[in-house]
Amino acid sequence: MRRMHKSAAVLLGTGIALLCGCDRHSNKETFYLVTANVALPYWQTAAAGFNHAAAAYKVTAKVVGPDGHDANAELAELQKAVAAKPAGILISVADASVLQPGIDAAVDAGIPVITVDSDAASSHRLYFIGTNNLEAGRLSGKRVADNLKGKGNIIIFTFAGQPNTEERLKGFKDAIASSPQLKVVDVIDVKGDPRLAFDRAQELLAESGPKKIDAFVCLESVSGKMVSDAIKRVNATDRVLIAWDVNPDTLEGIKAGTINASIAQKPYTMGYVGLKALDEVFHNPPQHLNKNYSADSFAPYPDFVDTGTSVVDKSNVDSYIASAEAGK
To answer: Is the pLDDT of residue 58 over 50?
Structure first.
């Protein structure tokens, strides 16, 4: 066999490198995940997915956000990220009215933005990656209706004004609409403070007679453990508690029987898929970044990527605990 000419070998090697994408990425490419509450285990799981995708692509990932539920503080973090001129931004929207101007400013500056977990549908973001929150709310409502056999008083804990929790609330109410004897007595905004959930649950557990609360529903992840602790303190084993997400203490509550079930999302997947999506946009940018692709039948992007939802209860909680251990 004749020896390949050196210049031909170099060209062939370059071609192979281009085909496999070996030289596509650089650690100078920086992607941001802007979270609604960076201290929550939920967002730490999302950050793990984001960071793992960045490591696989050999790009730089930065995770930022306030330590509490504060939309204005999140906007400040978004604005800092935009000023750094990153390759792309993934953001969960704590309050669309507060964060939409910042998202639009980022896109107008040429920075791709994809929303995750909680959307700002009217903004210039490219698309949304996360849970079908309307359907997830319906899952929660169906679980309550089945357990209460269509009759009882319900308390809901939520983050008021956050797009994803508002959709969950609507889905929940849709699911119980056909059971007129199921009554939502109050919807309580916990404002990201788990102590508020504990205190209110304690007060409500003292109600009896026609005012007795039969079910507590948490449409966010911070209040589940607190309500579970309040129920455990007074041994109110006849109450139904539906939590949200699969924080370790939530899984422990399901296993112990103080939490009937939890609606599980996939934050790791949101972070992982989100970074890969941003990377694709950065390397193959559209002609018009701020175009409304949801109204385009030939759009290169989806309007919504559903990362999945499931119900966790005693029948499958062990598999979720094992999965969490394996992912550490």
So the answer is: yes
